[in-house]
Design goal:
Blueprint: H1 6-17, H2 29-41, E1 48-55, H3 56-67, E2 74-83, E3 86-96, H4 106-115, E4 121-128, H5 137-145, H6 154-164, H7 167-174, E5 180-186, E6 189-192, H8 199-214
Parallel strand pairs: 4-5
Antiparallel strand pairs: 1-3, 2-3, 2-4, 5-6
Amino acid sequence: MMPADPKLIEAILLACLERNPVDFRKVDDAEVNKVQTAIKRATTERGAAFRYPVTRKHFLCGCLDFTEHLPEEHLIVAYGHRYGNTTDIERVHHVAGDQRRVVVPDYIRAEIRHHFHRSDAEVIVFHNHPRTGNEPEWFYTLKSLLQDLPIASNDDRKELQRHAFNAVGLFRQFFGQGQVLFYLGESGFVKEFRLPPLLPFLEQLNPLNIQQASKP
């Protein structure tokens, strides 16, 4: 039986509200291989640079191919510039984590802030949720009902909120400028998640309602 965890229920509901996974049917295998090679070299603070930029779709496909069968979480962050409906990606960082967690190093947080100074600058944040085979039975039932689509956790959405829903991030979204975009790889899919956690907001509203109800 699925636990009645508000954070889990929120994660499922928000995942259902977001757009479909990225379509990788038309990608260039040579570009995807180039991305995987860069990811392997990007484990230092300096990261790895592409000789020629790659598009966002090729980058995400490379991230999925690289992490799909690995037993631990990985964080792969790309830096580039918005170009029409995509991102021209120039550099990448890669950090390996544990089975259920990957920590964002301080040097990556600093690099995101530094790169984001230009209005057309864009950052792509990808991480994966590996399958261990030890998940509870209800997890597989739930995933089958959701067509096995990725489900971003509460911690994932807190990182999104920190980078995309501050004053600068909201300003850029409104004017269609470069943004920090978050993607999750899971079960053979890559899906963008764009909604912040709602429970903290609802918890703030609840005391207000109680105070108003208690007034004579």
